[in-house]
């Protein structure tokens, strides 16, 4: 059974999705983008069949093509409305991060997907990095003992040209700032590894050198997890002169691990009291070097979603996981705006709540 697949949004991240769809032998029936040239470009670059239909209206595409799996790769602010329309049409979904820009929208996606019995996966592809899978295995085997604290550092660079390429970037209505756009993958990993449940977040955000965007270019946070462990987030797009690193540290009673590289794809430290494996061998084995910060995770994520559809099970990365990552970013924004700690869980919050935050 080959699933009929369609892609909405043919911008910067779309090549990873098309490549993953091809690799997983999906029947690519349609592309959709408001800019026809974007679709023509992808048709040629990926040598897609001439039968691939092109649409500028995704609702028309859903009606005519009836795809079974849709990937949404548009501006972040459009994810929720499109997702709900796709779910209504009976399509399973892969939604690029963030799953939505408000908790209410994320909850609606989760609710409607359940009602319609369709699978929705948030595209947090770094969970499939070999390094991250190895760390997760150690977490699940409780090799760390008691988790003490974990840290996520995203030290990247984004210049003005990045934002002028797509004017929606850096706006509160369609995006958010460094934490929501660039850092959410590692924020997702930190929350997932440290037990998921959070009691309180204390955050600070600022716009230090990106006066041409509305949202933050620097975010810092302290997180208290329900299991008594702590987390630290440091995210920025101000690093001179280019992307430096994305690192994840996990510290426990009996273990210390560091994943680094451009997108947490390399294990740089691997120390456990149980001595079950050779640290040097582990470090040598988990040394992926992807061509970009997007890593190699899209392909296995697609494989998993296809299997989830066929076997009627939850995807490895669920819509709820997408909501969790969104909630943590919004909690940091809220804490920074209010100048005090924020208790979780949160029921309502949106990037729109922070409009005008850094207006000069």
TrEMBL record:
User: Sorted alphabetically, which Pfam families does this protein's record hold?
Assistant: GFO_IDH_MocA (PF01408), GFO_IDH_MocA_C3 (PF22725)
- Annotated signal sequence is none
Tell me where in this chain the GFO/IDH/MocA-like oxidoreductase domain is found: 132-257
Report the residue ranges that make up the Gfo/Idh/MocA-like oxidoreductase N-terminal domain in this protein: 3-122
Instruction: Report the InterPro entries cross-referenced here.
Output: Gfo/Idh/MocA-like_OxRdtase_N (IPR000683), Gfo/Idh/MocA_Oxidoreductase (IPR052515), GFO_IDH_MocA-like_dom (IPR055170), NAD(P)-bd_dom_sf (IPR036291)
- Per its record, how is this protein called by name? Gfo/Idh/MocA family protein
The root-end lineage is: Bacteria, Bacillati, Bacillota, Bacilli, Bacillales
């Amino acid at each position: 059974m080959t699933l009929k697949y369609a892609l909405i949004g043919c911008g910067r991240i779309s090549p990873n999705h098309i490549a993953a769809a091809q690799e997983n032998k999906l029947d690519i029936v349609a592309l959709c983008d408001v800019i026809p040239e974007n679709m023509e470009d992808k048709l040629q670059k990926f040598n897609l069949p001439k039968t691939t239909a092109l649409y500028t209206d995704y609702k028309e595409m859903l009606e005519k093509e009836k795809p079974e799996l849709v990937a949404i790769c548009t501006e972040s602010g459009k994810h929720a409305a499109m997702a709900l329309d796709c779910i209504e049409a009976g399509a399973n979904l892969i939604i690029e991060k963030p799953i939505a820009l408000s908790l209410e929208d994320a909850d609606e996606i989760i609710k409607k997907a359940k009602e319609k019995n369709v699978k929705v996966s948030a595209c947090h592809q770094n969970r499939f990095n070999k390094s991250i899978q190895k760390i997760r295995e150690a977490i699940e085997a409780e090799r760390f003992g008691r988790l003490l604290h974990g840290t996520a550092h995203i030290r990247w660079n984004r210049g003005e040209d990045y934002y002028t390429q797509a004017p929606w970037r850096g706006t509160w209505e369609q995006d958010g700032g460094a934490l929501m756009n660039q850092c959410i993958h590692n924020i997702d990993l930190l929350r997932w590894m440290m037990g998921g449940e959070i009691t309180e977040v204390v955050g600070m955000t600022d716009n230090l050198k990106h006066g041409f965007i509305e949202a933050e270019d620097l975010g810092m946070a302290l997180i208290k997890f329900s299991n008594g462990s702590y987390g630290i987030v440091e995210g920025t797009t101000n690093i001179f002169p280019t992307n430096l690193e994305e690192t994840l540290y996990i510290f426990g009673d009996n273990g210390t691990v560091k994943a680094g590289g451009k997108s947490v794809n390399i294990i740089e430290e691997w120390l456990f009291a149980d001595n079950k494996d050779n640290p040097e061998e582990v470090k040598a084995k988990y040394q992926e070097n992807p061509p970009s910060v997007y890593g190699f995770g899209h392909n296995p994520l697609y494989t998993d979603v296809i299997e989830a559809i066929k076997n009627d099970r939850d995807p490895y990365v669920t819509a709820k996981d997408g909501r969790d990552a969104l909630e943590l970013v919004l909690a940091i924004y809220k804490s920074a705006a209010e100048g005090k700690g924020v208790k979780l869980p949160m029921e309502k919050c949106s990037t729109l709540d922070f409009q005008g935050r850094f207006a000069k």
